[in-house]
Amino acid sequence: MTEQESSFSRTALLAQPEAPILAAARLTACARSRYAETLLAETGNDQVVVVGAGLDATALRLPTGRHRVWVVDRPGVLQWRARLFAQADLADTATSVAADLADGLRVGDLENAGVDLTRPVTVLWLGVSMYLAPDECRRFFGDVSALADGSALVFDYHLSRELRDDAGRDYACAVAAMAGASGEPWQCAASPDSVARWLTEHGWRVEADIDEADATDDGFFDRQQYLSPMRLVRLVHAVR
Fold first, then answer.
1. 6, 46, 54, 125 - which has most CB atoms within 10 Å?
2. Domain ranges of the chain
3. 139-170 residue pLDDT tens
4. CA distances, 57 to each of 6, 16, 29, 101, 124 (Å)
5. What kind of architecture, by CATH, is found in domain 3-239?
């Protein structure tokens, strides 16, 4: 997402908090972050790599001193990130790793930035897979398969069209149109069986693959005015 697009998105969210599509987008961002951070607390891995980080603030929400976080993104995005953190008077405690992810993720770049590749790493890959071609997603699973045993991967993906419900299809059509117009079309959607096969072929074992709605508390949707569950986004936890 460019700086201009992010500014537009923030303005739209503030101006129309009741719009169902914007409410659903906020839920997606919050649900995936909460899911990832809950797993971080459970796994005990103290090395965290956020790939395609953008403005991710995971490092600020984790317990002080218990984790070291690296954020991986394009150089221009990392510069933008640094500028916005400075403007907000926030100390970005994460270590930046510049990488052109269109060429894949090189674990050597992580090692050069201080990641200890002999110990487990938890990789967060959130809000990224849907913008890549299926073969690029499969390649990414292979890239991170070089990490140590005990490493974990947490990511989200979109269900294939035939597996979505009506709400999921409607939301996908609306957001995909905007994403495509901004030059970032959605490209990858898959079934849980396909995702499990892509992971398994690179040595990953699926621990969980759940609907986004299942990551919320019981009764959550009963308390919401503008939100309802939909079948589109899946959250995955995989381990080596």
1. 125
2. 3-239
3. 999 999 999 999 999 999 999 999 999 989 98
4. 15, 24, 12, 20, 12
5. 3-Layer(aba) Sandwich (3.40)
